[in-house]
Write a structure and sequence with these properties.
With 109 residues, the protein is an all-alpha fold. It is built from three helices and no strands.
Length: 109
């Protein structure tokens, strides 16, 4: 009997307490960094060299530079194009993420 009375008093005491006061939290400080400067790329010359135009190409390279050139295989060029496309995709996704959070920040202010 004492246990039942103790449980009743214990539980009813919690119910009669006023609810806690919830204070509004201050808004967090939002930092909006300045936009990133656009990329400025330098032009690159690409030459497609075959047996037909090899002599012309070598003469032009010797006239324009020190006679040194770099070659990429077709498979290497495909890999290069794929990598550039992946970089573009990553940059666009990053920009979309930044815009998403900027819009959220604007709507909360």
């Amino acid at each position: 009997m004492k246990k039942i009375l103790f449980c009743f008093l214990f539980l009813s005491g919690c119910a009669s307490a006023p609810p806690p006061v919830v204070q509004e939290c201050p808004k967090p400080l939002v930092l909006n960094p300045p936009p990133i400067e656009a990329v400025t790329l330098k032009p690159v010359k690409f030459y497609v060299v075959s047996e037909k135009n090899l002599e012309t190409f070598l003469k032009e390279i010797q006239d324009d530079s020190s006679g040194v050139f770099y070659a990429v295989t077709p498979a290497g060029y495909q890999s290069l194009a794929h990598n550039v496309q992946e970089l573009r995709r990553y940059i666009k996704e990053s920009q979309n993420t930044i815009l998403f959070y900027q819009k959220i920040d604007e709507s909360t202010q």
